[in-house]
UniProtKB/TrEMBL annotation:
UniProt xrefs under InterPro entries: Bact_Transport_Assoc (IPR052529), DUF418 (IPR007349)
DUF418 domain residues: 231-385
Pfam family, one: DUF418
Transmembrane regions: 21-41, 61-79, 100-116, 122-138, 145-164, 205-230, 242-260, 280-297, 317-335, 347-366
Signal peptide coordinates: none
Protein name (database record): DUF418 domain-containing protein
Keywords recorded for this protein, A-Z: Membrane, Transmembrane, Transmembrane helix
Length: 397
Protein backbone atom coordinates (compact mmCIF):
# COMPACT_ATOMS: atom_id res chain seq x y z
CA UNK A 1 0.00 0.00 0.00
CA UNK A 2 1.38 3.40 -0.93
CA UNK A 3 1.16 5.71 2.05
CA UNK A 4 1.98 9.26 1.07
CA UNK A 5 0.20 12.60 1.20
CA UNK A 6 -1.94 13.73 -1.69
CA UNK A 7 -0.72 17.14 -2.84
CA UNK A 8 -3.01 19.69 -4.44
CA UNK A 9 -0.88 22.63 -5.51
CA UNK A 10 0.99 23.43 -2.32
CA UNK A 11 -1.61 21.84 -0.03
CA UNK A 12 -1.55 18.46 1.65
CA UNK A 13 -5.02 17.03 1.10
CA UNK A 14 -4.86 14.65 4.06
CA UNK A 15 -4.44 17.67 6.35
CA UNK A 16 -7.59 19.23 4.93
CA UNK A 17 -9.39 15.89 5.17
CA UNK A 18 -8.52 15.51 8.84
CA UNK A 19 -9.47 19.13 9.46
CA UNK A 20 -12.86 18.48 7.86
CA UNK A 21 -13.59 15.43 10.02
CA UNK A 22 -12.46 17.39 13.10
CA UNK A 23 -14.95 20.15 12.27
CA UNK A 24 -17.76 17.60 12.11
CA UNK A 25 -16.84 16.16 15.52
CA UNK A 26 -16.53 19.62 17.03
CA UNK A 27 -19.95 20.59 15.67
CA UNK A 28 -21.62 17.49 17.11
CA UNK A 29 -20.11 18.25 20.53
CA UNK A 30 -20.96 21.97 20.30
CA UNK A 31 -24.53 21.17 19.32
CA UNK A 32 -25.20 20.31 22.97
CA UNK A 33 -24.54 23.96 23.86
CA UNK A 34 -26.55 25.30 20.93
CA UNK A 35 -29.84 23.62 21.86
CA UNK A 36 -29.54 23.38 25.68
CA UNK A 37 -28.03 25.32 28.64
CA UNK A 38 -25.14 22.86 28.61
CA UNK A 39 -22.67 25.22 30.30
CA UNK A 40 -24.69 25.17 33.52
CA UNK A 41 -25.96 21.60 33.86
CA UNK A 42 -24.74 18.27 35.11
CA UNK A 43 -25.49 16.27 31.95
CA UNK A 44 -25.63 12.96 33.81
CA UNK A 45 -28.68 14.17 35.74
CA UNK A 46 -30.12 16.85 33.43
CA UNK A 47 -30.62 14.50 30.49
CA UNK A 48 -33.17 12.21 32.13
CA UNK A 49 -34.88 10.29 29.33
CA UNK A 50 -33.37 6.92 28.30
CA UNK A 51 -32.86 8.19 24.74
CA UNK A 52 -30.99 11.31 25.86
CA UNK A 53 -28.93 9.36 28.38
CA UNK A 54 -27.83 6.88 25.73
CA UNK A 55 -27.12 9.60 23.14
CA UNK A 56 -25.12 11.64 25.63
CA UNK A 57 -23.12 8.57 26.66
CA UNK A 58 -22.11 7.97 23.03
CA UNK A 59 -21.13 11.63 22.52
CA UNK A 60 -19.35 11.76 25.87
CA UNK A 61 -17.19 8.72 25.12
CA UNK A 62 -16.57 8.99 21.39
CA UNK A 63 -16.98 12.68 20.47
CA UNK A 64 -16.68 15.25 23.25
CA UNK A 65 -13.13 16.50 23.96
CA UNK A 66 -11.71 14.24 21.22
CA UNK A 67 -11.95 16.49 18.16
CA UNK A 68 -10.90 19.93 19.35
CA UNK A 69 -7.44 18.46 20.19
CA UNK A 70 -7.15 17.38 16.54
CA UNK A 71 -7.98 20.90 15.40
CA UNK A 72 -5.50 22.38 17.88
CA UNK A 73 -2.74 20.06 16.67
CA UNK A 74 -3.52 20.95 13.04
CA UNK A 75 -3.36 24.63 13.97
CA UNK A 76 0.16 24.02 15.30
CA UNK A 77 1.04 22.00 12.21
CA UNK A 78 -0.01 24.90 9.99
CA UNK A 79 1.93 27.43 12.05
CA UNK A 80 5.09 25.35 11.83
CA UNK A 81 4.64 24.89 8.06
CA UNK A 82 4.33 28.63 7.58
CA UNK A 83 7.45 29.23 9.68
CA UNK A 84 9.38 26.65 7.64
CA UNK A 85 8.22 28.30 4.40
CA UNK A 86 9.31 31.71 5.65
CA UNK A 87 12.79 30.33 6.41
CA UNK A 88 13.09 28.78 2.94
CA UNK A 89 11.76 31.88 1.17
CA UNK A 90 13.70 34.24 3.47
CA UNK A 91 10.56 36.23 4.25
CA UNK A 92 9.60 37.71 7.63
CA UNK A 93 7.53 35.35 9.76
CA UNK A 94 6.75 37.09 13.04
CA UNK A 95 5.28 40.38 11.70
CA UNK A 96 2.97 38.73 9.17
CA UNK A 97 1.94 35.96 11.56
CA UNK A 98 1.26 38.48 14.34
CA UNK A 99 -1.02 40.39 11.99
CA UNK A 100 -2.82 37.19 10.93
CA UNK A 101 -3.32 36.18 14.54
CA UNK A 102 -4.58 39.64 15.51
CA UNK A 103 -7.20 39.38 12.77
CA UNK A 104 -8.10 35.86 13.93
CA UNK A 105 -8.46 37.24 17.45
CA UNK A 106 -10.86 39.87 16.11
CA UNK A 107 -12.86 37.15 14.33
CA UNK A 108 -13.02 35.23 17.61
CA UNK A 109 -14.09 38.22 19.67
CA UNK A 110 -16.88 39.13 17.22
CA UNK A 111 -17.94 35.48 17.12
CA UNK A 112 -17.97 35.16 20.93
CA UNK A 113 -19.85 38.36 21.68
CA UNK A 114 -22.29 38.61 18.79
CA UNK A 115 -22.95 34.99 17.75
CA UNK A 116 -21.97 32.29 20.27
CA UNK A 117 -20.06 32.46 23.54
CA UNK A 118 -18.34 29.07 23.08
CA UNK A 119 -15.83 30.51 20.58
CA UNK A 120 -12.36 28.93 20.37
CA UNK A 121 -10.76 31.23 17.76
CA UNK A 122 -9.86 33.90 20.31
CA UNK A 123 -8.00 31.33 22.41
CA UNK A 124 -6.21 29.91 19.36
CA UNK A 125 -5.06 33.38 18.38
CA UNK A 126 -3.65 34.11 21.84
CA UNK A 127 -1.86 30.76 21.90
CA UNK A 128 -0.60 31.49 18.40
CA UNK A 129 1.25 34.57 19.63
CA UNK A 130 3.14 32.34 22.06
CA UNK A 131 3.83 29.90 19.22
CA UNK A 132 5.56 32.61 17.17
CA UNK A 133 8.48 32.05 19.48
CA UNK A 134 7.87 28.38 20.25
CA UNK A 135 8.12 27.23 16.61
CA UNK A 136 11.83 27.99 16.79
CA UNK A 137 12.37 25.47 19.59
CA UNK A 138 14.00 22.25 18.29
CA UNK A 139 11.68 19.26 18.19
CA UNK A 140 13.75 17.34 20.75
CA UNK A 141 12.90 20.07 23.28
CA UNK A 142 9.45 21.16 22.10
CA UNK A 143 7.85 17.75 22.74
CA UNK A 144 9.02 17.54 26.39
CA UNK A 145 7.95 21.16 26.94
CA UNK A 146 4.48 20.39 25.57
CA UNK A 147 4.14 17.29 27.77
CA UNK A 148 5.30 19.09 30.91
CA UNK A 149 3.04 22.11 30.33
CA UNK A 150 0.05 19.83 29.78
CA UNK A 151 0.56 16.96 32.21
CA UNK A 152 1.70 18.71 35.38
CA UNK A 153 -1.32 21.08 35.72
CA UNK A 154 -3.69 18.36 34.49
CA UNK A 155 -2.46 15.75 36.97
CA UNK A 156 -2.45 18.28 39.79
CA UNK A 157 -6.02 19.28 38.96
CA UNK A 158 -7.24 15.69 38.78
CA UNK A 159 -5.30 14.69 41.89
CA UNK A 160 -6.52 17.70 43.83
CA UNK A 161 -10.11 17.03 42.81
CA UNK A 162 -9.76 13.40 43.87
CA UNK A 163 -8.35 14.46 47.25
CA UNK A 164 -11.11 17.00 47.90
CA UNK A 165 -13.77 14.49 46.81
CA UNK A 166 -12.49 11.85 49.23
CA UNK A 167 -11.74 14.17 52.15
CA UNK A 168 -14.68 16.54 51.77
CA UNK A 169 -17.32 14.65 49.77
CA UNK A 170 -20.03 17.30 50.29
CA UNK A 171 -17.97 20.31 49.13
CA UNK A 172 -18.01 19.59 45.38
CA UNK A 173 -21.76 18.89 45.26
CA UNK A 174 -21.73 16.12 42.67
CA UNK A 175 -24.56 16.49 40.19
CA UNK A 176 -24.94 20.22 40.90
CA UNK A 177 -26.64 22.38 38.27
CA UNK A 178 -26.86 26.17 38.32
CA UNK A 179 -30.64 26.48 38.24
CA UNK A 180 -30.60 30.28 38.12
CA UNK A 181 -28.24 30.41 35.13
CA UNK A 182 -30.21 27.62 33.40
CA UNK A 183 -33.39 29.68 33.70
CA UNK A 184 -31.62 32.83 32.52
CA UNK A 185 -30.18 31.01 29.49
CA UNK A 186 -33.58 29.60 28.56
CA UNK A 187 -35.15 33.04 28.95
CA UNK A 188 -32.49 34.80 26.85
CA UNK A 189 -31.92 32.23 24.12
CA UNK A 190 -35.23 30.40 24.09
CA UNK A 191 -37.62 33.33 24.53
CA UNK A 192 -35.68 36.57 24.14
CA UNK A 193 -34.87 38.91 21.28
CA UNK A 194 -31.42 39.22 19.74
CA UNK A 195 -30.67 42.06 22.18
CA UNK A 196 -31.73 39.87 25.12
CA UNK A 197 -29.44 37.10 23.87
CA UNK A 198 -26.61 39.59 23.37
CA UNK A 199 -26.96 41.01 26.89
CA UNK A 200 -26.78 37.49 28.33
CA UNK A 201 -24.02 36.29 25.99
CA UNK A 202 -21.50 39.03 26.81
CA UNK A 203 -21.26 38.29 30.57
CA UNK A 204 -21.49 34.58 29.76
CA UNK A 205 -18.32 34.83 27.68
CA UNK A 206 -16.63 36.97 30.33
CA UNK A 207 -17.46 34.38 33.00
CA UNK A 208 -16.83 31.21 30.97
CA UNK A 209 -15.06 31.92 27.70
CA UNK A 210 -12.44 34.39 28.90
CA UNK A 211 -11.28 32.25 31.88
CA UNK A 212 -11.15 29.27 29.50
CA UNK A 213 -8.71 31.28 27.39
CA UNK A 214 -6.31 31.55 30.34
CA UNK A 215 -6.68 27.80 30.96
CA UNK A 216 -5.79 27.38 27.30
CA UNK A 217 -2.14 27.95 28.20
CA UNK A 218 -2.22 24.55 29.90
CA UNK A 219 -4.95 22.77 27.92
CA UNK A 220 -4.67 24.07 24.32
CA UNK A 221 -1.16 25.47 23.87
CA UNK A 222 0.55 22.07 24.49
CA UNK A 223 -1.66 20.47 21.83
CA UNK A 224 -0.68 23.21 19.38
CA UNK A 225 2.95 22.55 20.30
CA UNK A 226 2.44 18.84 19.67
CA UNK A 227 1.11 19.67 16.21
CA UNK A 228 4.22 21.75 15.57
CA UNK A 229 6.36 18.76 16.59
CA UNK A 230 4.51 16.59 14.07
CA UNK A 231 5.17 19.23 11.41
CA UNK A 232 8.87 19.34 12.29
CA UNK A 233 9.14 15.59 11.58
CA UNK A 234 6.85 16.03 8.51
CA UNK A 235 4.43 13.38 9.73
CA UNK A 236 1.94 13.80 6.88
CA UNK A 237 4.59 14.24 4.22
CA UNK A 238 6.55 11.14 5.39
CA UNK A 239 3.60 8.90 6.24
CA UNK A 240 5.01 6.02 4.15
CA UNK A 241 8.12 5.97 6.28
CA UNK A 242 6.15 6.05 9.53
CA UNK A 243 3.17 3.86 8.59
CA UNK A 244 4.06 1.00 10.96
CA UNK A 245 4.50 3.32 13.92
CA UNK A 246 1.39 5.28 12.96
CA UNK A 247 -0.66 2.07 12.94
CA UNK A 248 0.70 0.97 16.34
CA UNK A 249 0.15 4.36 18.00
CA UNK A 250 -3.32 4.53 16.46
CA UNK A 251 -4.36 1.15 17.87
CA UNK A 252 -3.00 1.86 21.34
CA UNK A 253 -4.55 5.35 21.40
CA UNK A 254 -7.97 4.11 20.34
CA UNK A 255 -8.05 1.40 23.01
CA UNK A 256 -6.62 3.56 25.80
CA UNK A 257 -8.73 6.57 24.84
CA UNK A 258 -12.02 4.68 24.80
CA UNK A 259 -11.26 2.96 28.11
CA UNK A 260 -10.31 6.21 29.86
CA UNK A 261 -13.29 8.07 28.42
CA UNK A 262 -15.59 5.28 29.65
CA UNK A 263 -14.49 5.66 33.29
CA UNK A 264 -17.51 7.76 34.38
CA UNK A 265 -19.75 4.94 33.13
CA UNK A 266 -17.61 2.03 34.34
CA UNK A 267 -17.68 3.38 37.91
CA UNK A 268 -19.57 6.62 38.57
CA UNK A 269 -19.52 10.13 37.06
CA UNK A 270 -17.46 11.86 39.75
CA UNK A 271 -15.66 15.12 39.05
CA UNK A 272 -12.24 13.49 38.95
CA UNK A 273 -13.45 10.85 36.50
CA UNK A 274 -14.97 13.56 34.30
CA UNK A 275 -11.70 15.50 34.33
CA UNK A 276 -9.73 12.35 33.56
CA UNK A 277 -12.15 11.51 30.78
CA UNK A 278 -11.84 14.87 29.05
CA UNK A 279 -8.27 15.98 29.82
CA UNK A 280 -6.51 12.62 29.50
CA UNK A 281 -8.82 10.38 27.48
CA UNK A 282 -9.89 13.13 25.06
CA UNK A 283 -6.46 13.92 23.56
CA UNK A 284 -5.41 10.25 23.55
CA UNK A 285 -8.50 9.25 21.57
CA UNK A 286 -7.94 12.27 19.31
CA UNK A 287 -4.51 10.90 18.37
CA UNK A 288 -6.15 7.56 17.58
CA UNK A 289 -8.77 9.21 15.35
CA UNK A 290 -6.09 11.28 13.59
CA UNK A 291 -4.08 8.13 12.90
CA UNK A 292 -7.11 6.36 11.43
CA UNK A 293 -7.85 9.25 9.06
CA UNK A 294 -4.18 9.62 8.12
CA UNK A 295 -3.92 5.96 7.13
CA UNK A 296 -7.30 5.87 5.39
CA UNK A 297 -6.38 8.97 3.37
CA UNK A 298 -3.81 6.86 1.54
CA UNK A 299 -6.48 4.58 0.08
CA UNK A 300 -7.61 5.86 -3.34
CA UNK A 301 -11.23 4.82 -2.75
CA UNK A 302 -11.33 6.70 0.56
CA UNK A 303 -9.82 9.78 -1.06
CA UNK A 304 -12.36 9.67 -3.86
CA UNK A 305 -15.43 9.15 -1.66
CA UNK A 306 -14.53 11.61 1.10
CA UNK A 307 -12.63 14.25 -0.89
CA UNK A 308 -15.53 16.73 -0.55
CA UNK A 309 -14.94 16.72 3.24
CA UNK A 310 -11.43 18.00 2.58
CA UNK A 311 -13.03 21.00 0.83
CA UNK A 312 -14.90 21.87 4.04
CA UNK A 313 -11.59 21.46 5.88
CA UNK A 314 -9.86 23.73 3.39
CA UNK A 315 -12.48 26.38 4.26
CA UNK A 316 -12.15 25.67 7.99
CA UNK A 317 -12.71 29.24 9.21
CA UNK A 318 -15.82 29.65 7.06
CA UNK A 319 -17.10 26.21 8.04
CA UNK A 320 -16.60 26.83 11.77
CA UNK A 321 -18.20 30.29 11.81
CA UNK A 322 -21.18 29.34 9.65
CA UNK A 323 -21.90 26.39 11.95
CA UNK A 324 -22.47 28.87 14.78
CA UNK A 325 -24.46 31.26 12.61
CA UNK A 326 -26.78 28.54 11.30
CA UNK A 327 -27.18 26.74 14.64
CA UNK A 328 -28.01 29.89 16.62
CA UNK A 329 -30.54 30.92 13.97
CA UNK A 330 -32.18 27.50 14.25
CA UNK A 331 -32.33 27.33 18.04
CA UNK A 332 -32.46 30.88 19.38
CA UNK A 333 -35.76 32.71 19.61
CA UNK A 334 -34.75 35.42 17.12
CA UNK A 335 -34.52 32.59 14.57
CA UNK A 336 -36.65 29.44 14.56
CA UNK A 337 -36.83 29.21 18.36
CA UNK A 338 -36.05 25.51 18.88
CA UNK A 339 -33.93 26.07 21.99
CA UNK A 340 -34.68 23.35 24.54
CA UNK A 341 -37.16 21.68 22.20
CA UNK A 342 -35.05 18.94 20.60
CA UNK A 343 -33.46 15.84 22.09
CA UNK A 344 -29.78 14.99 21.78
CA UNK A 345 -30.28 12.50 18.95
CA UNK A 346 -32.21 15.04 16.89
CA UNK A 347 -29.59 17.71 17.57
CA UNK A 348 -26.83 15.33 16.48
CA UNK A 349 -28.64 14.43 13.27
CA UNK A 350 -29.17 18.14 12.59
CA UNK A 351 -25.44 18.76 13.05
CA UNK A 352 -24.60 16.02 10.56
CA UNK A 353 -27.19 17.35 8.10
CA UNK A 354 -25.89 20.92 8.35
CA UNK A 355 -22.33 19.68 7.87
CA UNK A 356 -23.33 17.78 4.72
CA UNK A 357 -24.79 21.01 3.35
CA UNK A 358 -21.55 22.79 4.24
CA UNK A 359 -19.57 20.14 2.38
CA UNK A 360 -21.74 20.66 -0.71
CA UNK A 361 -21.38 24.42 -0.40
CA UNK A 362 -17.59 24.14 -0.06
CA UNK A 363 -17.39 21.89 -3.13
CA UNK A 364 -19.39 24.36 -5.22
CA UNK A 365 -17.64 27.45 -3.83
CA UNK A 366 -14.13 26.14 -4.46
CA UNK A 367 -15.02 25.31 -8.06
CA UNK A 368 -15.05 29.06 -8.67
CA UNK A 369 -12.92 30.59 -5.90
CA UNK A 370 -9.50 29.78 -4.45
CA UNK A 371 -10.57 30.05 -0.79
CA UNK A 372 -13.62 30.42 1.43
CA UNK A 373 -15.27 33.83 1.96
CA UNK A 374 -14.00 34.32 5.53
CA UNK A 375 -10.58 33.04 4.50
CA UNK A 376 -10.54 35.66 1.73
CA UNK A 377 -11.38 38.42 4.22
CA UNK A 378 -8.62 37.15 6.51
CA UNK A 379 -6.04 37.20 3.73
CA UNK A 380 -7.24 40.49 2.27
CA UNK A 381 -7.02 42.30 5.60
CA UNK A 382 -3.62 40.72 6.28
CA UNK A 383 -1.97 41.70 3.01
CA UNK A 384 -4.14 44.69 2.06
CA UNK A 385 -3.76 43.96 -1.66
CA UNK A 386 -4.37 41.31 -4.27
CA UNK A 387 -2.55 38.11 -3.38
CA UNK A 388 0.53 37.07 -5.29
CA UNK A 389 0.91 33.51 -6.53
CA UNK A 390 3.36 32.83 -3.69
CA UNK A 391 0.89 34.10 -1.08
CA UNK A 392 -1.97 32.07 -2.57
CA UNK A 393 0.05 28.89 -2.08
CA UNK A 394 0.54 29.34 1.67
CA UNK A 395 -1.14 26.53 3.63
CA UNK A 396 -4.22 27.83 5.45
CA UNK A 397 -3.99 27.38 9.23
Amino acid sequence: MKVSPTLLGNRIESLDMLRGFALLGIFIANMLTFHSPYFYIDPHTYFSTPGDQFSYKIISIFIEASFYPIFAMLFGYGLQMQYAKSVVNKTPFAPIMAKRLAILMAFGLIHALFIWSGDILFTYAIMGFIMIGAVRIPKKWLLPVALVVYLIPTLLLIGGTYFVTKMFPDDLMEGYSDIQRIEQAITAYGHGSYVDALLFRIPEWLLIGLPAMFMGVFMVLPLIMLGAVFAKVKLFERAAQFKGRIALVTLLSLVAGIVIKSLPYIDEPTYYYKLTQQLIGGPILAIGYAGVILLLCQLPIFQKVFRPISKAGRMSLTTYLTQSIVATLIFYNYGFGLYGKVDIETGTLMAIGIFILQVIFAELWLMKFKMGPFEWIWRKVTYGKNLTKKEEKVQVL
